[in-house]
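User: tokens in, sequence out, please.
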């Protein structure tokens, strides 16, 4: 995070001289103070419609990173803050009468009112004009008479609304209600407490923001005024339907406050809660396509919001102010400064919003986690945003991490990813899967030497399960001419050679086959010649649930499968399963994802049938389940079957997360041993929410709703991610694709980097000499012994 340079009293400041600030929250005040300090001759006016001592919310949490930026930019403000902070390290997670404590986290908080007082005093001392109880003129009017207008007018920004065409705002509301309250005593730690009530699950988030006076301790239960016992922020949150069922929708604010205190009486030691004009809110995620318009710029909640459960609202606003001031000092013109500000801040904000979205969703789905074991529940909560990971938590609190590992079942010295997993008669020696990856390198559907080397190398690389690419059940079911198949004896012979090598060359590694049919996405060029583009010549006819081309005007219109066609395809899958058995595959996966034939039946965007195979979800499931049953009948009973699904189409009107759970439930009821949870690739107009482990929340939801094993996929790239997902109970297996293209020995290297030499990832005998990192050049040159003046 950039911090503006200290002012030079001998030089005039650069950039805008007349500055208007709309909004007197921390972001607006701090921006005004910084710009005035950097340019004492500047004329800066700030409008705030509330009184100076009006504030909503209670405590504010700031990170060490943010405080470091403040210290460099304005030591005066930093010193004032340091005097006020409450600091603590622990997080307490209370669930079903059990308290799990994790330390080493490092928090600093103070009262929001006191923060504003410090910033008011700093602005006044620098000469910023503060106009309280005064509505700011419209931004357009200010922009005509000021060089710069800073809109820090919050989540309900009038500036953003007035210029929506320029800023391009998108506001998304969510599924929980919450209320900000306070307790007049200081909690010992950051506290998360779950209450399972007759109405549903409720959650308390609490943290101290004011110290007890000397001689008092918050755990004594003594009554006393706030200045003696300190104070804590208490946020109560629950799903909308729980809020209605509990009657909060008809409570006045005072009764809501009393009701929350009764529900969480144990956490509060029987003490009351208080409000400050508090009301029940629904969180809105704010995203803007652009943060500036002419000489008007958005900062803080006006530009972006991040859910309170990761405590980033004030942090982001203050960091915005720091970056904006720095860019104004560094850039030669205001347009360049505003562009640099957005370029610097947007990636940071988007990363924070992704983490906040993961945390928000976790609390929305809290009810699916309440049956987890106590330590796993706590670990799951701590790692919900994916910013805290297993390895990070081991550094913060090794004892807590070890207790979680023991509860999970890790043998001593064994990372979670190297614990075995049994599916029917197959025991996988570790939890790493080489995800199916189309290689487009077959001839007439026959896998060749390339496939032997490709899959053989990854088997030697230590993964517990190596999956083939999608193996097609008919010539017409191929995606491209380079796709493999299992519809001829020559193909079966070639696959037998590959399966035999995996079993003999890397004993203990399992190999699975994924069976599929391209449906409307077939008859296209090899990926590197034009993904999803039809062949220039030699096209074959396509079949699908409905006559809808993948890309209108680009791909051919598929034929609708009639009764005879449905029966023929079902038998093709069953025949391929029989051949897979004779090849020696250990596991079979049915591909019902990514817009291919069976996926095309499941999605309402691609299935417009009016017969018994279309319409309701039950009907859309009918044919995929018929295929599953036919395959299961031909596949040996002691060998597991999995099903890959797209848990969302990432498109309006497509498969929902709720439907994905029901799809998984149906396959499990028919005998699926695990669900491989992917997303998207069903329609070309999809809008995925990319990010690290971005698909895992869908696997998480299915696993913890249905208590069924799941395979998680999607931008899982580090062994730390794998360990974290497993320990949190979000997945049972993790499938990685691109990491295994980058490094065929990814699993063995993960073991070496974690110092694990066990049988969960044994090095092949010919490779054992490479199990240690090769030595590099010398870096331990002798240090100087003497310093001569």
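Assistant: Sequence out:
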């Amino acid at each position: 995070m950039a911090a503006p340079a200290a002012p030079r009293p001998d030089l005039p400041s650069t950039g805008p001289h007349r500055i208007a600030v709309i909004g007197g929250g921390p972001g607006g005040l701090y921006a005004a103070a910084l710009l005035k300090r950097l340019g004492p001759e500047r004329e800066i006016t700030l409008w705030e419609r509330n009184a100076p001592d009006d504030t909503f919310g209670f405590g504010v949490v700031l990170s060490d990173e943010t405080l470091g930026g403040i210290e460099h930019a304005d030591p005066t403000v930093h010193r004032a803050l340091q005097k006020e902070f409450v600091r603590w390290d622990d997080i307490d997670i209370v669930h079903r009468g059990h308290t799990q404590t994790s330390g080493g986290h490092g928090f600093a908080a103070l009262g929001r009112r006191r923060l504003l007082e410090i910033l008011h005093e700093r602005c006044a001392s620098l000469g910023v004009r503060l106009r309280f109880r005064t509505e700011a003129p419209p931004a357009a009017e200010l922009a005509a008479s000021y060089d710069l207008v800073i809109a820090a007018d919050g989540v309900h920004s009038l500036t953003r609304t007035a210029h929506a065409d320029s800023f391009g705002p998108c506001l998304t509301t969510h599924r929980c209600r919450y209320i900000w309250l306070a307790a007049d005593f200081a909690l010992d730690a950051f506290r998360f407490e779950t209450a399972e009530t007759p109405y549903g699950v409720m959650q308390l988030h609490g943290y101290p923001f004011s110290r007890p006076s000397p001689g008092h301790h918050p755990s004594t239960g003594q009554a006393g005024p706030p200045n003696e016992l300190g104070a804590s922020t208490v946020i109560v949150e629950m799903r909308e339907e729980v809020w209605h069922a509990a009657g909060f929708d008809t409570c006045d604010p005072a009764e809501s406050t009393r009701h929350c205190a009764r529900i969480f009486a144990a956490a509060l030691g029987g003490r009351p809660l208080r409000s400050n004009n508090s009301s029940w809110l629904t969180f809105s995620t704010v995203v803007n396509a652009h943060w500036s318009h002419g000489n008007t710029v958005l900062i803080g909640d006006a530009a972006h919001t991040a859910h309170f459960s990761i405590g980033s609202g004030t942090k982001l606003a203050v960091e915005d102010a720091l970056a904006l001031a720095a860019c104004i000092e560094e850039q030669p013109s205001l347009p360049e400064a505003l562009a640099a500000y957005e370029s610097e801040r947007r990636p940071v904000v988007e990363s924070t919003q992704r983490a906040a979205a993961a945390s928000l969703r976790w609390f929305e789905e809290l009810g699916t986690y309440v049956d987890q074991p106590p330590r796993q529940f706590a670990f799951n909560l701590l790692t919900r945003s994916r910013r805290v990971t297993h390895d990070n938590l081991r550094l913060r609190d090794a004892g807590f991490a070890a207790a979680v590992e023991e509860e999970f079942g890790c043998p001593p010295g064994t990372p979670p990813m190297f614990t075995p997993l049994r599916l029917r008669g197959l025991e996988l020696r570790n939890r790493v899967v080489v995800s199916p990856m189309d290689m487009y390198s077959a001839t007439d559907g026959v896998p060749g030497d390339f496939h032997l080397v490709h899959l053989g190398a990854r088997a030697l690389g230590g993964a517990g399960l190596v999956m083939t690419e999608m193996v097609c059940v008919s010539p017409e079911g191929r995606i491209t001419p380079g796709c493999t198949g299992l519809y001829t004896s020559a193909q079966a012979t070639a696959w037998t050679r590959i399966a035999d090598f995996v079993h003999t060359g890397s004993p203990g590694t399992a190999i699975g086959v994924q069976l599929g049919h391209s449906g409307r996405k077939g008859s296209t060029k090899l990926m590197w010649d034009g993904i999803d583009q039809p062949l220039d010549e030699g096209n074959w006819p396509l079949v699908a649930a409905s006559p809808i081309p993948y890309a209108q005007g680009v791909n051919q219109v598929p034929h609708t499968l009639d009764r005879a066609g449905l029966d023929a395809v079902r038998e093709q899958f069953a025949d391929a399963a029989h051949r897979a058995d004779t090849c020696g595959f250990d596991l079979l996966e049915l591909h019902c994802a990514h817009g291919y034939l069976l996926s095309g039946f499941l999605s309402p965007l691609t299935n417009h049938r009016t017969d018994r195979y279309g319409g309701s979800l039950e009907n859309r499931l009918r044919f995929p389940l018929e295929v599953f049953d036919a395959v299961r009948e031909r596949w040996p009973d002691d060998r597991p079957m999995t099903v890959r699904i797209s848990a969302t189409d990432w498109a309006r009107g497509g498969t929902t997360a709720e439907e994905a759970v029901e799809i998984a439930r149906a396959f499990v009821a028919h005998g699926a041993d695990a669900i491989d949870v992917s997303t998207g690739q069903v329609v070309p107009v999809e809008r995925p929410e990319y990010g690290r482990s971005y698909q895992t929340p869908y696997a998480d939801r299915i696993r913890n709703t249905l208590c069924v094993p799941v395979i998680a996929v999607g931008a899982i790239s580090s062994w730390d991610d794998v360990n974290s997902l497993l320990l949190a109970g979000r997945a049972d297996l993790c499938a990685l694709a691109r990491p295994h293209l980058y490094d065929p020995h990814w699993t063995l290297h993960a073991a070496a980097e974690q110092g694990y030499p066990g049988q969960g990832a044994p090095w092949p005998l010919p490779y054992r000499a490479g199990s240690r990192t090769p030595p590099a050049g010398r870096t331990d040159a002798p240090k100087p012994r003497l310093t001569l003046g």
